[in-house]
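the two lines:
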Amino acid sequence: MQSSSAVAGTAGAPPVPQVAAHFASLEVQNHAARLGMWLFLATEILLFAGLFVCYACYRFLFPDAFAAASRELNLLMGTINTLVLITSSFTAAMAVHYAKEAQNKKVVAMFVLTILMALGFLVIKYFEYAHKFHEGQLPGAYYRFEGIQLPGVSMYFTIYFLSTGLHAFHVIIGMAVLAWVTTKAMRNEFSYRNYTAVELGSMYWHLVDLVWIFLFPMLYLI
Amino acid sequence: MSAMANESLKEDHEMRGEHHSGPGKYVLIWFALLVLTVVTVLTGRMHLPDWGLALALVIASVKGGLVALYFMHLAEHKGANRLVFATSMLFVVLLLLFTLFDFGTRFRPALPSNATPPTWPVEVGQGRYGGMLKSPDTTP
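prediction for all of em together
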């Protein structure tokens, strides 16, 4: 396998991944990289869990205000965003599949599609935010929407902006990570022996999707 | 050390098998996620009174499970990866449950003035006294 033709170096051929001295083999190194990514994703899950707990507490205290406030959200835009994000997760998963088969052009295509859908998600999010700002449905003391004047409504919008804002921040970071991996795919780097960057990059993107899968019913579908 | 190497070799071997994670499976999972999204929107719009939240959470958990198991390859991975994910999920559930135990057992003086607390025996005059409230038939 070491001497297979896929590894041998023409210009731009996939490089052999370096195995660090403290790893017994490439497989062990990949295993460690994947485990490290899972540990990082576990901390990410717990970061969002803090916001979920905030939501649960205030929803328990102000059930009517939360129900009334959630009807102010644009369900159509939220649903489209969910479908966009799920589809982008699918293309990211396909990128891993193509990376294993050393089809780097298809990896690039899949990640470009993923990034474009992420951009679409942010554009839709921008329109939702702009509408909220216009209506004065803002967090905390900045809440000035005349339509609903229940105690606890501003808490709903505080949690809405905190959780969707943190999620949008993760979308932007995810786009940067995927763009970086895409440049590596453009240099034809990936093959069955070397696809860890593609796998871990798309794992991050799946986590962004995973978080939104829970945020969507919490915020839009009360 | 050798056990670890063996495990990842085994995992590596399993990851290699194309029947485990081909495009066909990804398309299937994608389609299931789209259908479940439509289902959760439809059931969410009905505003089901009591178990609407539970249903939405079940659907979200199924969707999240599909993403974690197949898109993130947990179904193919063995050992530590699954343990890390399961542990973080357990801690999320513990964090939620114990915080909600606190909020769920508060009585009116421990809540914001406009909050709607659960009905407690002390408020309907059944239990013994608790907090600042006493049942109506007690003599001071």
